[in-house]
Fold each of these.
Amino acid sequence: MLKSIVGQRLHLYLPNGWEFDPWITGAGFIEYTLTAGPHTGRHAVQKPTYRRLADNVEFLGWYEETGTVVTLVWHLDTQTVDRFAAVPRWLADGDMAASTGDNQDPVFREEMARRAAAGPDMPRHIYADHGYFELSEK
């Protein structure tokens, strides 16, 4: 049985065709690429908050440069995940492909900051759903 998500390369499946390849490189970093879904190809490195909530439950949460707030609760024994994401209105109502890019690219970060400042931010679109994950061979 999986003992922790920390240090693991995973493949995450969420409703509506969203698929991610997250790599939790340590308790303070997650690197991911969206491999299917509304902004396929997005790559990001984030500095999440990490907590071990119970023997088989871990939490990651972070704030995206788009203004999106993401939390993931990982259930290690069932290899399932609960996601809560609050997406700003400008991104939810527009083409989510606008956030495709690499958040390590300063030009991309500047463009996301410009779009976020132009808004609107509210009301946020909420994703509260449940998916599953598996260990990745990558």
Amino acid sequence: MKIITIDEEIWQKLYNSINTIADFVRKQEDQSYNDLWLNNHEVCQYLHISEKTLWRMRNNGDLAYSKIYGQYFYTIGAIKDMLNANAVQTSDEYVKELMEKGKSYIEKGRRLKSNKN
């Protein structure tokens, strides 16, 4: 096996270049469906919502759409943008608390099952 050494500055430039290329490729993959148009029914199925909820989202300006001859159409990119704009960020503390509650729930459930035996 050969060991190759490289200057840290050159390594950092190479590393940054590789990450830039990887980010570009990821963006290209992610956008492949962004321009695909869906109708009301397809959006409702995709988001698991009713047509009334979709109507409210349109009227509130939450979701970009196009109207052609009385039919509404939405791009997957617009749906992703809406979902990302409304994403709720959680703190690490909240996630830890949630995990502890989950572990506690599982332990209690296991104790209950073992007590019945």
